[in-house]
Amino acid sequence: MSTALLPLLAPAALLVPAFLAIAMPGRRPRGLLIVAESAALAALGVAIASLALLIGQGAQTSPLLGVGLFGLSVRLDSVSVSMLALVAFIGWIVLRYSARSLDGEARQGEFIGWMAATLSAVLLFVVSGNLVQLALTWVLTSLFLHKLLLFYPERAAARRAARKKFLFARLGDAAMIGAVVLLIARTGTSDLASVIAALKSGQNGLMVVIAATLIALAALLKSAQFPTHGWLTEVMETPTPVSALLHAGVINAGGFLLIRLADVLLAAPGVLALLVMVGGFTALFGGLVMLAQSSVKTALAWSTVAQMGFMILQCGLALFPLALLHIIAHSLYKAHAFLASGTAVEVVASGRRPGPVAVPNLKAVGRAFVLALAIYAGIALAFGLDGKSPQAIALGAILILGVAYLLAQGLADAAPRALTWRTSLLAGLASVSYFALQRIAEALTAGALPVTPSPGPLEWGLVALAMVSFGLVAFAQATFPLWSDHPAAAGLRVHLANGLYANAVFDRWLGGWKRTPSA
User: Is pTM, for the whole model, over 0.90?
Assistant: First the structure.
């Protein structure tokens, strides 16, 4: 076997426990648990070996390609290796956690089998070297995940969420398959490298624009973007390991699809604009609703909706290296958050409370925003703006607005001096981290991902709209203590806690969800 086909060993390893579960579907299958964790560790080892191979071959700008049995092919570059390592690592953690979390369940072996099968499909998806394999693994991932979502089929809420997810997934599958057919028809090949080369040579046209639109639609449906987000906030009836795998892994498939087919999207600026608008709105909407949730897991689900929206926004701005970095960071954080959600309440309750939170007035909030942007601008100049796209600079400004909320606490009249210095230091660290990680991400993906193009009038307008929208929401959040006692605030909390009823309206529009979902 060619060394370029090494990554295929990762999904192959996890197929072993998937098939073994057929013989051991019941309670406490000790042998299966050992094999599953060993397979996940082997997949992680393959990811590390693939990274070493990539570095050794110097394939940053010329991805290694290989064609295996049954038409399977591999695109080995910094993007695929990063995702391969991420999925393998999270898969190992989730399988290890599942061994104890589901101990004693009557169908524990079956659960481990479907979990391994889902991980295998995701691993094969992220290393795909041709469009047919990309589409096939996209569909298989969703079908295997459906089995996990229905692990407790007797729960009505689980059946409703799984049915909704099943519908949106099939619509996404249809869009994905349609895009693949159009791209193959336009370029005459399914090989991913050849398709990208054809697009870079100017082989675009209406078929490519339609394909880009379908790719965007498939990604939006997979990433639970507004108004199809409801299923993601309703799958809390599944075991915690499924939530961790879904929110830290499978949900990222839409973002990865946009990143992998970035060259297709660049041929359709209107589609990128659509991603900016939908992703930006979903990020703001999900973030506001998250703040009103009382359940830890539900709040984390809304956080995922918001984070996926922000990642879609990054892709729409053609900041694909930053979107990949976002996927990695969010996955690690969210896997830990879900697996630790059971003890989160106790940890918060046992925490030391230093006293009442200092409430900033309007002047303090205004000073905080000015100071945050000044810190960001100073660090941006220190790093140098040569080669930095306006989109990336604007995105950093949006991110630093979140730190302005903390700065406002430190600049309140009643705040101790130590808090002021601490929040100012945090703002500086956030700015340094943004530019440092951006530089690292761009260096690692050079050649594997296209360079962000210079913005035109449309892009400038979208950047301005995003900055104003996120700025207004950040300002409203920072000043919320000043108007939280107003009667309207209580009603707003109720409306936000219910997601502004968007999901209920969408359910009614689709006719409800009374039938049992397909197995």
Answer: no
